[in-house]
Write a structure and sequence with these properties.
Elements: E1 24-28, E2 31-34, E3 39-42, H1 45-48, H2 57-69, H3 81-93, E4 99-100, E5 107-108, E6 111-115, H4 118-133, E7 137-141, H5 150-154, H6 159-162, E8 172-175, H7 195-198, H8 200-207, E9 212-217, H9 231-243, E10 247-251, E11 276-279, E12 290-294, H10 296-299, H11 315-330, H12 333-354, E13 358-364, E14 367-372, H13 383-395, E15 398-399, E16 401-403, E17 409-412, H14 420-435
Parallel strand pairs: 3-15, 7-8, 7-9, 9-10, 10-11
Antiparallel strand pairs: 1-2, 2-3, 4-5, 6-12, 11-12, 13-14, 14-17, 16-17
Helix pairs in contact: 2-11, 3-11, 12-14
Bound molecules: pyridoxal-5'-phosphate.
Pyridoxal-5'-phosphate binds next to helix 4.
């Protein structure tokens, strides 16, 4: 261990990939460079964060300009214009239900709150839902993931993420995950007629007192393994929960900001009528920021002093977020995510034809997952193979992710600015790794 790496021993030993971690020195665009000068093509974006690419010059310039003016003032105690400007921008793009004004003609603007992370956004969103409805219970999906605080782990149905930290909060009910490859109801889409969505009625009837404040749902379950529900799922599920008086909190922490080939993951579905949308990760291209945006009628349940975050709405992060949104729109990153995502998807599907390990290929835009199994008939998960693929890709200079409820899903989530040549390189190397006999342990 040299002088640059020995400081790692002062950190909580939670860094884990089953390998020595890369010691990162710098990053630019899609390239990560380690302290020895080795470069890597980043196909994981710092866990789906740097959608515009690492250190985008325009985003850095906006952050620097803001830093020279104001670093921190406590945006929940004073009004800082750049924070309001970001909220105004979000009011225009976040697909939250808009409310009619009392005269029935004007539309009231949605309102936002800013924190520092995805978990904080979900916590705040649940608090607002409880305050607005006067109800206390929450429904979530069995394989969802929403963060690592007690509140968010309580609504996360993943023992691997929850271990050694219970007991968790009561008042949480889980509905079946719309996981077509491993349907919890052992049905097949589309003949199932979205039975998993309709089963949410049973979830409410059997697991709650009817006092449901909110349904928290990801449009694509990222940590669960890029589980990609049929697009109508969200519409039908939201309708059922609305019928029961619950609010819909859509967790766009991982799916937001162009990742799925639309600005938000829920934009693939129609008439969701979300009440609150939670965001983080890609919102500020790496500057720490979490947010939730609520329809005005819901947002106004909060009164002065009801909620606060000391660092929430950091002016530098908000300036970066505004520049990031301009970059996403003006540099055509969503269009690129659609085009490059289609290319990568086609290449992965072609790999599936030849590779016995790949049981399923799924995702949207540049949020793709390959579920690896020991045997396609039994679907026995192959998490060791997924880890081996990640290690071999790293040896070839490409960073990818691994996730999933069984730890067996290879995740491809590169910056949305990835080029056709870079996609080709990533897909060629991945196919070659899958073809190598040394994967068979
Ligand atoms: C869908 C979703 N929600 C919430 C979170 C938690 O975000 P954070 O790690 O910023 O707290 C994550 C993190 O992976 C996530 O994927």
């Amino acid at each position: 261990m040299d002088a640059k790496t020995q400081s790692a021993r002062f950190l909580l030993p939670v860094v884990s990939q089953g390998l020595e971690p890369i010691v990162v020195a710098s990053a630019s665009g899609r390239t990560v460079t380690d302290i020895d000068g080795n470069t890597y093509l980043d196909c994981f974006s710092g866990i789906s964060v740097v959608n515009a690419g690492h250190n985008h010059p325009r985003i850095l310039a906006a952050a620097r300009e803001q830093m020279d003016k104001l670093v921190h003032a406590a945006s929940c105690v004073y009004h800082v214009p750049v924070v309001g400007e970001l909220a105004e921008k979000l009011a225009g793009i976040v697909p939250v239900a808009r409310n009619s004004a009392p005269d029935g003609t004007r539309l009231a603007d949605p309102k936002s709150f800013f924190g520092n992370s995805g978990a904080e956004a979900i916590e705040g969103a649940m608090r607002l839902a409880k305050q607005h409805t006067g109800r206390r219970e929450v429904v979530a999906l069995a394989y969802g993931f929403h963060g690592r605080t007690i509140g968010t782990l309580s609504i996360t149905g993943n023992m691997g993420r929850k271990k050694n930290n219970g007991p968790y909060l009561s008042g949480v009910a889980f509905g079946p995950t719309p996981y077509c490859y491993r349907c919890p109801l052992t049905l097949s889409y589309p003949s199932c007629d979205l039975a998993c969505a309709h089963a949410l009625r049973d979830t409410i009837r059997q697991q709650t007192s009817g006092d449901v404040a909110a349904f928290v749902v990801e449009p694509i379950l990222g940590e669960g393994g890029i589980i990609t529900p049929p697009t109508e799922y969200l519409t039908v599920a939201a309708q059922i929960l609305h019928e029961h008086g619950a609010l819909i909190i859509v967790d766009e922490v991982q799916t937001g900001f162009g990742r799925t080939g639309k600005m938000f993951g829920m934009d693939h579905s129609t008439n969701v009528n979300a009440d609150i949308v939670a965001m983080a990760k890609g919102i500020a291209n790496g500057f720490p920021l979490g947010a939730f945006t609520a329809s005005a009628a819901v947002a106004d349940a909060m009164k002065p002093g009801d909620h606060l975050s000391t660092f929430g709405g950091n002016p530098i992060s908000c300036a970066a977020a505004l520049a990031n949104l301009a970059v996403i729109e003006e540099e055509g990153l969503i269009e690129n995510a659609v085009a490059r995502g289609a290319e990568l998807m086609a290449r992965c599907q072609a790999m599936q034809e030849h590779c016995r390990w790949i049981g399923d290929v799924r995702g949207k835009g540049l949020m793709l997952g390959l579920e690896l199994v020991r045997d396609r008939a039994t679907k026995e998960p192959a998490p060791d193979v997924a880890k081996a693929v990640r290690a071999k890709m790293r040896e070839r200079g490409i960073l990818i992710g691994v996730g999933g409820i069984f730890g067996n899903v290879v995740r491809l989530q590169p910056p949305l600015s990835i080029t056709g040549d870079e996609c080709d390189r990533a897909a060629t190397e991945l196919a070659d790794v899958f073809a190598s006999s040394s994967l068979a342990s």
